[in-house]
Amino acid sequence: MIELVQQILNALSLGGQYALLALGLAIVSSVMGLVNFAHGELVTITGFSMLGLQYLGVPPIVLLPLGIVAATLAAVLTERVAFRPVRRADSTTMFLTSFGVSIVIQNLILMFVATRPRAVATPEWMRGVIEIGAFRIQVLQLLTTGMTAVGLAVLVVFLQRTTVGIAMRAAAENFTMTRLVGINADRLLTASFALSGFLAGIAAIFIIARRGAVDSFMGFIPVVKAFVAAVLGGFGSLVGATLGGFALGFLEVALDAYLPQSAAGFRDAFVFVLVGAVLVVRPQGLFGRADQVIA
Amino acid sequence: MTLKALSRSITAASLPAGIVMAIAIVGSAFTTASIQRTISAFLVDLIVVVGLQVFMGNSGVVNLGHAAIMGIAAYTVGILATPAVLKSLTIPDAPLGLARVELNVVLAAVIGIGVAAIVGALVGMAITRQSGIAAVMGTLAFLIIVHVVLTNWISLTGGPRAFFGVPVRLGVLSLAALGVLAIVVARVFKDSVTGLHLRSSREDLLAAAAVGVSVRQVRLVGWIVSTAIIATGGVALALFLGTLDPDSFYFRTVFATLAMLLLGGMRSVSGAVVGTIVIACGTELMRYLEGGPDLFGVVLPRLFGLPQVFLGATIVIVMAIRPDGIMGDRELDELIFGRGTAEQPANGVSGAVVESKVAATVRRGSE
To answer: What is the model's pTM?
Structure first.
């Protein structure tokens, strides 16, 4: 029982990270049709911004919000520099551009900042454990789950109540029509990227707190997992991305718990094979619409 | 495909194939080991990029999983053809008694390509069911699955350490011959009925399906042809290098080959060849600069990661400025002799002109 509760919390916090990243992917993809492979580099940039600020003497607790700000700014910057020129191109061209951007960012960091992993300090209390009766709960997991919930709530309010949020949902339905009613396309794209960067930043600070170190390729695995989550949920759907993220979190924690020690190294292979099998049966994803499947 | 059309495709492929052969012949004149190795690596890349073109170029669906196919083929050859004496040191506990198996290299190569093609076909059946991004994700997941298996199945592959002792049987000229074969197969496929169907599905999926093209089926055929060529590239790598490690079949290879294909123009077989040549030269230059060379008395700083930045920047810039790549959808023969009937020219060109151009192409080709 205790074991189960702790595993559920484990899955919620892991799934929350995937959901936050997958949501960022889904937002940008639904507004401009870009499947952003460079999304994972936002995690890396968050980490290295925190590292840089740490050297300047900024205390660990302040590093966290500044990390989120850095991710938001970086997302907006990549849109300006790399994605705006290909905005009108087809989705394959945009995807390949993001693939290139991802390689460039990874290797620029490798070239000019660090070739080896560097330690980043997070506040002491984040690594603590709370004991309630027989339960031992990691503060970090509680915080991740809580912040994910807050992030999702903010996102829902933003998309339902603010003009920009409503415009984003409109653009996801029909971008041209949205422009016709007087929404500025450039500003809308900037806002979408800022939002995806903000969500990636929240996920990033927890990924970094868990790892304790940053390196230039750290964004790769999270973005691949987020992709899998988004596709599993039904690509382009925000609800799908969220549920897909949590589904993936639960799947991974379950495999961790039940796979024998000898097969532990193969966990990711099992995860991808299972997700692949689901997609063969339901190409539109678990929560996607069937009419989105073309071939 | 009629015999006449077949011979026309093969003749047309002789231009890029000739360039590759010329590079190999000039290259084989230099006996320096490092130059031989560089040119051999270029030729392996060429085979893979041409194979990648067959599916990606004709279907328009991005494939990130090709390095996994290479890996399966290369490791199969390695495990089957490496002398048992060496394997008793590297993988003594291989399953199915594979540590004691020692096959003839040609047989091992055929099995390697076969195994990769079968795995590829199974993956292809899953991937061709998906559309757009889900298909790309499928190829990416395949890449990671194979990498996880190659790295973690230590008793079979030796794990992350290098697997050494594969018999070295291929040199520059034999690799070039394989490259020429790949180019011819790719061009013949592109001009074949299935190739045309696949290209029509790339241009307009719904229209192609509406006129009776079975998109899923032609995609699967294209995927399998592509897989077989890429597997040949993997086997070629194993048999010229003699050493394998899982990281050779992961993202580094995917980036490099993708940049080559995109720069050259993924819709053209000649583009694949041109892109491979340009990127191979560029990467060599970047590797030289990466080491921090002494240039005219100025010692440059070491810039670790420079070749990768070059590849990434190439992709970004090509996509922004010329998303169709250098060649677009043109082949070298079309560039020189004009277009045949395969694609109808834009407005204003009469059928007679086209026919005469075709006749001219055929005449010149047969001379």
So the answer is: 0.87
